[in-house]
Amino acid sequence: MKQRVYLGNSSSDELFSILQKFSPSKLFLLRGKESYKYCGAEMALNSVFLRLGCEVVEFCDFDKNPKMEDLEKGIELLNDSGSSLVLAIGGGSVLDMAKLIRFFFSYSGDKTGNSFRKEQDLLPLIVLPTTAGTGSEATHFAVLYKDNIKYSVAHRDILPDVAIVDSRFTYRNPQYLTACTGFDALAQAIEAYWNVNATEESDKYALRSINLLWRNLLSVVESPTESVRDNVSRGSFWAGKAINLTKTTAPHAFSYPFTTNYGYPHGHAVALTFPFLFQYNLSDLDVNLSPDLNMTVYRKKRDILLGIMNVSIGQSCEFFIRYLTSLGLFASLNDIVFDKKMILNGVNMERLKNNPKFITHEFAVRMLNELEILIHGK
User: Fold this and answer.
1) N or C: which end of the chain has fewer CB within 10 A?
2) What pLDDT sits at residue 1?
3) DSSP 67
4) Considering only CA atoms, which of 94, 98, 100 is closest in space to residue 65?
5) Residue 375's pLDDT band (boundaries 50, 70, 90)?
6) Sign of the C-alpha dihedral computed for residues 228, 166, 308 and 141 taken in this order
7) Structural domains in the chain plus CATH codes
């Protein structure tokens, strides 16, 4: 399925005409709770619904991290509603929940597995992100938690039919949320670029994203303008397009236990190990480099990344720690008690396989020791 994309800070003006083409008499709306009104979505969408003259069944009573019990509840509500279209507006968790509900409304199978059977036609799914960072609007996978374990459910039919990326819905996002989601997008783009699964197409998307985000991320946190917000939203979308082809690597793999066990928002969790893994992945290329990578090509990619950021590989870890501190993603760390065994046991091995260099146990332990010292100063 080829996704239709509307990109730019007036793109949501197209929503009425898009919905008109589907002619829904009843639609199923997934949305955030307080954020739906705060970001301006409630006023904008109510106007569209009024013009459309359709009945709207809303679902917003679910956790910020999509859980199995919420998914089951949403599927039942969608079934009872008789809706012919699913519309979602919100952050990454809202969009992931919508993608999962729409998919499992039509597909059977183990929801945390990888074998599914189509039972009925898919309902159309239209999504509008209200944060700039997760890229969920552009991917064919979604996060799902079961028994406090984080899974990534993947299938081509999880990809939304229509994505409307309008940065106006991000204008009121607070600094910390902007930093978390924005850095998540930057990490996604970098991880897609150095990925063992990278292609010419994913590289094109990744570089487009990196250039947009690197130039604008600090500004969108410290002194956002409409232009900067729009650039970050665009960068986030292209990062999503990139990881839709490659998936993510070690920084995301290590982020899972920090979110599950310590409650860090996803982007912040990714930031914790990113400086160490950035330097590790781009240095000593003769050691532990994946045999799936061409050394000459990968060395060129490394030089391109370092050139964009204007940093030497030997200084890159400290450089990213300072950068993330400027974004508020190290200064706002909680005083957590590290359980390194629990963290290592919670690493997502599927994502780790995509990393350009093999992560040894010794390196992982050393990285966590250094992170603990950085957090606690001892």
Assistant:
1) C
2) 63
3) B
4) 94
5) confident
6) positive
7) 4-170 (3.40.50.1970), 180-377 (1.20.1090.10)
CA–CA gap between residue 341 and residue 338 (Å, rounded): 9
Rg (CA), the chain: 20
Buried b (16+ CB within 10 A) or exposed e, 88-114: bbbbbbbbbbbbbbbbbbbbeeebeee
pLDDT (mean) for 245-255: 97
Contact 125, 160 (CB under 8 A): yes
- Name the token pair of 233: 């939203």
How far is it, in rounded angstroms, from Cα 4 to Cα 22? Answer: 14
Average pLDDT of every residue of the chain: 94
pLDDT digits (tens, 9 = 90+) for 298-354: 999 999 999 999 999 999 999 999 999 999 997 555 566 778 999 999 999 999 999
Please name which of 112, 229, 257 lies closest in space to residue 171, comparing C-alpha atoms: 229
Per-residue pLDDT, averaged over 15-20, amounts to 97
Neighbours of 243 (CB within 10 A): 28
pLDDT for position 64:
83
Whole-structure pTM value: 0.95
Calpha distance 24→122 (Å, rounded):
14
For 68, the 3-state DSSP assignment is: helix
Separation CA 40–CA 298 (nearest Å): 44
DSSP-assigned beta bridge partners for residue 58: 29
pLDDT in tens, 121-167: 999 999 999 999 899 999 999 999 998 888 889 999 999 999 999 99
Q: Are 304 and 312 in contact (CB under 8 A)?
A: no
144 phi/psi in degrees, rounded to 5: -140, 135
Question: Cα separation of 79 and 357, whole Å?
Answer: 45
Residue 355's nearest CA partner among 205, 197, 133, 183 is: 197
The string of pLDDT tens digits covering residues 279-305 is: 999 999 999 999 999 999 999 999 999
* Bridge partners (DSSP) listed for residue 153: 142
User: What are the C-alpha distances in Å from 193 to residues 176, 311, 350?
Assistant: 26, 17, 17
